[in-house]
Each structure stands twice: as C-alpha cells, then as structure tokens.
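Students often ask why we bother predicting the structure of a whole assembly rather than each chain alone. The short answer is interfaces. A chain on its own may look different once its partners are present, and contacts between molecules only exist in the joint model. In this exercise we take two input lines together and write out one structure for the complete complex. Read the inputs first and try to guess which parts will touch.
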Amino acid sequence: MNRNGFDEVIHAPNRLQICAYLASLSEIEFVTLRDFLGVSDSVLSKHLKLLADAGYLDVIKRAENGRQRTWIALNKDGRRAYQNHVRELKRIVG
Amino acid sequence: MSEHANPPDVGDLRAALKSVDQAKLALVAAARTPVWLTALGTGLLAVVLLGNWLMHESRSQEAVTGLATLAFLGLWGLNIFILNRRGLKVRVIPSSSAGRWFLLGYSAFVLAVFLLTGWLLEQGQSWVAWVSTTLICATFVIQVRRFPTGEPIVPAE
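Now the answer. The structure tokens for the assembled complex follow.
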C-alpha cells in the first residue's frame, strides 16, 4: 500500500484533496466536502469508502436540530499516512 | 492496492502538492471569521486588555472589563457555531507539526508581550499598554482572518 510514505490510496487526486481538507479540521460535513470538491454524492461516497476501508477516516452520523448530519474525520492513522505521503511528495519533488 | 510500478512523474507530484495547497486555501476562505465578527471581537479584546492593564481599582471599570471578557468569549462561541453551521469543525490544536509550532510561537509572543508590559507598567510607562494592546489586536486579526484553521499556509510556487 505504501513505500517510504508514498500511499497509493491517498494519492488519487480527489482523495488527496479530501485528506488535505480533513487534515486541517477536526471534522467536516459530507455536503460541505462535496461542495468543496465539486463532485457528486456517489463519487464522494466511493472515495470516502476507500479511505475508510484503509482505516484512515471515520464517518459519524449525528442528529442535530431534527436533521441527520454526516461528519467526516481523519483518524490518527489517516493523519499520519497523509502527513507521511505529503512529506514523501515534497522529498521526491525536492 | 498495489504499489505504483513506475516511478512517479515529478510534474504530477508537483501538481498534487499544488492541489493540497489549493484545498488548504479554499478551507481558509471558508473558515475565515466574518469581518463584522472580527471587528467586534477585536474591539472587545482591546477593552479587555486596556481594562486589565490600565484599571485603577474602579468598580465601574472592573464591571466593563468583566462584561467585555464575557462578550468576547460569547463571540468566540458564536464563531464556532457559525463554522458548525457551515459544516466545519476546526481543531483547537493543529494536527500538523508546522501548525503546532505556529501556535506555540504565537502563544510565546503573547506571553512575552504580557510579561514585558507588566514590567514596563511597574516602571510607570503607561503608554506601553496602548502599544501592547495594538500589537495583540493586530496579530489577533491576522490570526482569525489569515490563519483561521491554525495552519500556516505557504502556497507552493
């Protein structure tokens, strides 16, 4: 899955951006992330599933003010993998 | 998931890093504290700081400073509420080491200003309260407008 920090799961363009958004935040709402990326619900769900399957993020559903909101958070492993991946990209680029 | 067979293209990697910066900048724009809230918060912060440094045992001044402190904390809560409504929850302590160093540096700066101001006020230099308040308020505005996520953003060339 990774070599010297380079992570194939994270490296795909949309997933790298998802991680970049999540790394600076505690949590982000699904619809906000979808609007940032400019993708459809299904495309975002597919990317989130891949990241969740790799054990990098958590999907939290909460009922707030009578409506269900879905929040996405990068977990500890995800943050480490993302930071290692970006560090490796910077190292290769020089 | 398999390892990438070919060595990654440097141009692609640069583009990937640029996309990371773009994401961070978009996030900064979305998380930026509104101008009216920044102005109100900065005004209250100035009242709190000046009240703290130039208070002369007057009950009315104490009350104003206390109310300004409560109002400032209330605005802080309001900002968190606004961000939450926008679908963003900002971390109190940044996750990246750059963000942590940035926070540590800023805290050290504020602490140094407080210590120096306290010492100079004891020497009878009351003007320092105004200079320190201006310094702290200016850095507060930069912090909430330029670095609302607590991450120092330096866009790639």
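Check your guess against this: The CA atoms of residues 58 and 73 of chain A lie 5 Å apart.
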